[in-house]
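stage 2 :: seqdesign
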């Protein structure tokens, strides 16, 4: 919207910037282009004119309470703290939910909050021959956006699969010479897949 000529563009988010599910560079670049971040503001109502065109957004000011099940501090409304801002367009971000195909197609797979797949520190599920890449938007932690990249995630999975393969006395590829770089992501992915195929064959 800003690039198309809008005078003012802002993002209203009910939590603080520290809890925002976006990569650091996304936030940084948006600010550099003039996007405002109204954190601890939750849209609760929109007003329109007689033609149905949006004219205002009503924002409830929030404060952070105790951490919720995801580890993020839960936003709580501040009584009476309401702000109304004139707007001419609203883009509502409704969020995402996990794809149900994998969880429902693998019998016995342990699911967690919001039907996400539960894994241990080695990215392994409760089924010994199943691992899950915890990436969302190429981040290693769901909803975080501020931890190691997908390359690190692939590396951890490949190391864990290799560990299991070696424990079973099978020959496997080495991960020690792979450097952490963008291209290494695909190498780690290949190693993990190769080890995994040996494991289930």
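stage 2 :: out
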């Amino acid at each position: 919207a800003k690039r198309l000529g809008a005078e003012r563009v802002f993002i209203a988010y009910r939590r603080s910037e520290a809890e925002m599910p976006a990569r650091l560079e996304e936030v940084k670049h948006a600010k550099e282009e003039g996007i405002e971040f109204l954190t601890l503001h939750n849209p609760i109502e929109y007003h329109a004119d007689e033609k149905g065109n949006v004219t205002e957004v009503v924002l409830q000011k929030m404060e952070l309470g105790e951490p919720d099940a995801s580890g993020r501090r839960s936003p709580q409304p501040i009584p009476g703290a309401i702000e109304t801002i004139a707007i001419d367009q609203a883009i509502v971000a409704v969020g995402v939910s996990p794809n149900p195909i994998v969880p429902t197609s693998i019998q016995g797979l342990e699911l967690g909050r919001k039907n996400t797949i539960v894994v241990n520190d080695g990215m392994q599920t409760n089924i010994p021959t199943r691992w899950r890449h915890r990436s969302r938007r190429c981040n290693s932690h769901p909803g975080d956006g501020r931890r190691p990249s997908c390359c690190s995630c692939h590396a951890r999975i490949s190391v864990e699969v290799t560990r299991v393969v070696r424990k079973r006395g099978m020959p496997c590829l080495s991960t020690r010479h792979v450097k952490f770089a963008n291209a290494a992501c695909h190498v780690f992915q290949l190693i993990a897949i190769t080890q995994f195929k040996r494991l289930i064959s």
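stage 3 :: structure notes
- The chain is about 25% helix and 20% strand.
- The first helix runs from residue 24 to 32.
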